[in-house]
Amino acid sequence: MKNQRKIFAIVSVIFLVILAIAPFKANFPEWRDYQNKYNELVAKLPQKVKPTEIGIKQIWVQSLDRIDRCTTCHLGIKEPALKDAPQPFRTHPEIHHDIDELGCTSCHDGQGSATDFKEAHGQTEYWDQPVLPVKYMEASCGKCHKEPEVHEAPMLTLGRKLIAEYNCAGCHKIDGFTKQWVPPLDGVGAKVNSGWLVGWLKNPKGYWDHTHMPNFGMNDTDAHNIADFLKTFNSLPDGSSLAPLPASLLNPTDVQKTKMLDLGQTRFGEARCVSCHAVNGKGGYVATDLGKVSSKVSIEWLYNYIRSPKHLLAGVQMPRFRFTDEDLAAVVLYMKTEFVDFDMVQPPDHTPDPEAYQKGLTAFKKYSCTGCHQLGTMNHAEEMGPELSFIGSKRLYEIDFGQSTIKKSLPDYIQTKLMTPHAFSPIARMPKFGFTEQEAQAITVALLANRNESIPEKYVRHAPPKSKFSPQGEFGKLIADLSCLACHTMEGSGRLVATDLSLEASQAHPDWISNYFKVPYSLRPILTERMVNLFLSDAERKSLVDYMQVNFIADSLDRAIPMNDSLASHGKSLYFDRYACQSCHQMEGKGGYVGPPLDNLNSRLNAGWIFHWLKNPQSFKPATIEPNNNISDEDADAITAFLLKQKEAKK
Fold this sequence. Notes:
The chain has 651 residues and is mostly helical. The chain has helices at 2-26, 30-43, 99-102, 105-108, 117-120, 141-144, 154-165, 194-202, 220-230, 247-250, 254-270, 299-307, 309-312, 325-338, 356-366, 410-419, 437-448, 473-482, 504-507, 510-518, 538-551, 565-578, 607-615, 633-650, and strands at 59-61, 66-68, 278-279, 282-283, 489-490, 493-494, 586-587, 590-591.
């Protein structure tokens, strides 16, 4: 009984001490110490900065249902004089939003109502949205910005681009993304040889570093079974067939072969195939490396593909080159002879398993190959991966980190999964894509933006409506056959790999455009990629130019500029002295290499287009690095006159 009384007495004393300390501690909170330090800091500044009143600060964003007390400690976020101050007093970097309108946690996450450092940053148990690390910060931009390209958020933009390119929507449902076109497998048996196919299935990057095909870690048995299964598909889509090889490719004499190889090498170079394709790592990277293509495809398939790409692959972006029959045969023989994988180990003779078709079909479904490829009537993955539309809202208790020792956070989980898919489970189905650390970070940013969070419509920025540009007639047929929109944009359609052509007739003279189609060249000598030579006929070039002269022109870009020596002389002074254009552009072999040379512009560009480009380059090409110098009309007229006089000076 005495012991119980002693214990009760001790506990009572401890309880009284705690009760006494609690109000005392409340008078010395962490935030109060920060505010006192802030006032001491600003008092020492040479500039006059108003000290803060001691007390809790908060921002109430009613439209987002947020109360943020971050500014209780982060007191200098709007004060330019504190740009070099230590945290938490430092000025906030430049942003495109008003902090008072959106608050802090809308972008940074964390626990807005807390005033303790640990709790405010969300580093507490049962709080699933701690402050986002800086490298993932752009994920917050994606909550409101639904456009594919967000210029102020390059990592978010890159992540969304990679998600589309790697066709993540083939296996995962992701709002805003649809399954992309990839080569169908119908007729693949008539295209590739079994040895190449087995090697490709086991290690795609062993053939082409830039492939988007992932590595499934496939064993020999599955690879052989799938290869044997695919080799049974010899029929092309829609019942079409391969055209027979011409006689010149069947049994050429040694003399004929030598002449054909010389011609093929010449035409291959003139066509500038290396603008898109690399050859053993040298050249473009937007299409497959051709250095080993002879060891991959049959000569029949290669001949038919170059002859008419879309006949074999309806959605392919390769243009149909206007080779003559002689040129076509020569190019095919050159490629088949020269582009051989001499290091390729030929597999031993392989006898297909009697049950190869069924076993191959089972393995084909096991690896969800139809997530990316269509084969016959199979055009959907048998088993889809988890939906990723709201993965940014995933709770920590929903994540199985397995035996991994990584930091227990959603961003670390996603990035690790992308880099090492089997890090959390050795039986995981996700293949290895070989992402770089930067690529994995970018995709993580894009996925973290997918939140199950209600955002008022006034804050949301949707992707612009897709262009309905669909040219008809002969021009439309040529654009489709030549795959112009694979590199150029027109009226909002296409890919901006090369220039936008929507105002081409206002920019360039019709004769120059026609001659350029006849013999394309690079306006910038330092560029490795350039316009391919399609060997267009005179009639085809005329159809393209005539359409542009009617449709790709804007009257607002017309301008009459007096072409007199006095104005041109003034323009010369402005060009070299005031604006230093020679820093980036060459003229008569002198100047920089950043922009195109500006000799003989009178033979290429219209005066009105030069004038308006000088006034505002970004209005034509938002991503251009040409500076907007806010040139006056008078200066723009003078520089235009000087540039257009250069041809006359050479006469």
